[in-house]
Amino acid sequence: MTVRRASAEDIPQIYRLIQSATRRGKVLRRSVDELRKAVRRFRVIEKENRIVACCALEIYNKKLAEIRSLVVESGESNKGLASQLLHGCLQEAKKKKIYEVLAITDRENLFKRLGFMEQLHGQKALFVRPG
To answer: Is residue 119 part of a domain?
Structure first.
């Protein structure tokens, strides 16, 4: 398996992974157009010429970045792929001297193992989709 930065050629496979996870309620939907604009923010894991995992580091400013669209194909789960992708994102944030990295997730144990702490203390993030 190869961990690398995503390229434009990877967009259809990243989109497939994200769509599958969206249907299961695991990540927020992202359009192909949005992926085109953000593809260089993604890291992917490739196995036999197929993308089996992806994750993006969205840098908002020197103070804050967010882990987004962390998806591992169901047949590849529990192999440490998510941890590999997260380590890469955290290394990049550290290199760029980002003060804080945010993740909105239901995979608390994974993120806590990597040093993330719950900041909302039992509160949940709420979203609204206007009209």
So the answer is: no
Residue with tokens 């690398």: 4
Note the pLDDT tens digit of each residue in 11-48: 999 999 999 999 988 899 999 999 999 999 999 999 99
Domain count, the chain: 1
Q: How far is CA 117 from the centre of its chain?
A: 17
64-72 and 100-103 beta bridge pairing = parallel
H helix intervals, the chain: 11-23, 32-38, 81-95, 108-113
Which pLDDT tens digit goes with each residue over 96-124?
Answer: 999 999 998 888 889 888 888 877 666 66
- 93 is in which domain, residue-wise? 2-113
CATH number of the CATH domain containing 57: 3.40.630.30
pTM exceeds 0.85, yes or no: yes
126 within a domain of the structure (yes/no): no
